[in-house]
Design a protein that fits this description.
The structure is a homodimer. Chain A has nine helices and four strands; from the N terminus they run E-H-E-H-E-E-H-H-H-H-H-H-H. The longest helix of chain A has 26 residues.
């Protein structure tokens, strides 16, 4: 199999943005850390590959091993590669850079979503930073989600998909961000999405793509849970 | 002039990573918001261009207007474009993706540096989140800076520059991150850099590049200050 995806098992996390692209493009891949350890899988296989990442080591998962050799890290970078190779990005440079720009903006939103439950110590538990998380989440709900969704709504004013007439990996990623935010902040998102109907419609359109729908209904889709980026802590919604 | 850089005046911020690439490549550019308002510059010109960003609006500065038409946003995306066009990235796809990956990892470090003084509310003042900032900064100093610098040290084990035998925009960006961290966290960085001599040497090598050195000595280089990403709040160092 040409692609090995390395990401922590048990959570969607940043690996999910890559999974969605691979699934929508119908590209076979091995999800290494979720494979049985007696078949060379498991988190130990991920850690070993992370530590022997030469010549291009990654700072952290997710990373993609291509043809057993080339190692690509950083979610947006992996998607830049996959999008060009598998028809999930425009074929011209201007279009490709625009999709990359959109992806990086989605990545900023995702990082801020993560920081709502880890505002002051990335290596400590949420339970150890709950007052700080409450404050960060309030600002995220009232100022940042509306700003980000409003931006994407504006981008969608003139086209069916973010980058024109065809779905790209940025659309898949925006879908993932929106459904993740709905999981984590259902009340806040209901309010925010009332003002961004195009974002809501895009999310539905991605979910209805046959291969995405099949993937979401499969066991390959890890359910949202409280170890991922998007966590449902009711005290952080409102 | 083919390039117009749009970034907030008075601070280095994320615009500085783009300035360093333009300066090192000896590419003329107009720094719009720092130009006089009676010559079409000033922050109002930036805001106007940000609001009329069609067909490719940016979420936030910095963004680059190319030939008066194409608008490119997101720092790493602008650098991907400039690196390929002006010899600050490898000419092959594998090399270009590797430099992009490095840049995105530097961007993660820079975002975490920013969050040390804005851990719980991006839109509030530092003075309004000092206890939270103290906690975030402590974790950043003791765990995150060593982890990031250790990663780049490892990348530099086998090559003079991050991506091989030639300087790329990722090297310029790592320089900027290191000198910024030294400004903000002098005590912590002295300890951390004692374990990462290759990172320190790379930083010196970038600073000695003739066009970088000339830029750093010029008035075009905004001094570090407490409105940028890297801020010297002595209570956050230690």
């Amino acid at each position: 199999m040409p692609y090995e995806l390395h990401y922590w098992p048990g959570l969607q996390g940043r690996g999910e943005f890559i999974r969605l692209a691979l699934e929508d493009a119908a590209v076979p891949y091995r999800d290494v850390a979720r494979a049985p350890s007696d078949q060379g899988g498991g988190p130990d296989a991920l850690v070993e590959r992370l530590q022997t990442g030469a010549p291009h080591p990654s700072f952290a998962p997710p990373f993609l091993v291509v043809d057993g050799q080339e190692v690509l890290g950083q979610t947006a970078n992996v998607l830049l590669f996959l999008g060009q190779r598998h028809g999930l990005a425009p074929s011209d440079d201007v279009g490709r850079l625009w999709v990359n720009q959109l992806q990086l903006t989605i990545a900023d939103l995702v990082a801020e979503a993560h920081d709502t439950h880890h505002p002051v110590d990335l290596d400590a538990y949420y339970a150890d930073q709950k007052p700080e998380a409450a404050r960060r989440a309030a600002a995220f709900r009232t100022a940042r989600i509306p700003k980000f969704l409003g931006y994407f709504e504006r981008v969608l004013e003139n086209s069916a998909w973010l980058a024109g007439s065809a779905c790209t990996y940025a659309d898949l990623s925006l879908f993932q961000a929106v459904v993740g935010l709905r999981y984590a902040f259902p009340a806040a998102m209901a309010r925010c999405e009332a003002k961004t109907p195009r974002v809501t419609a895009l999310t539905a359109r991605v979910a209805a793509r046959p291969r995405v729908a099949a993937y979401l209904a499969s066991e390959r889709r890890v359910p949202f849970n409280e170890t991922g980026i998007f966590r449902r802590y009711p005290e952080l919604d409102g």
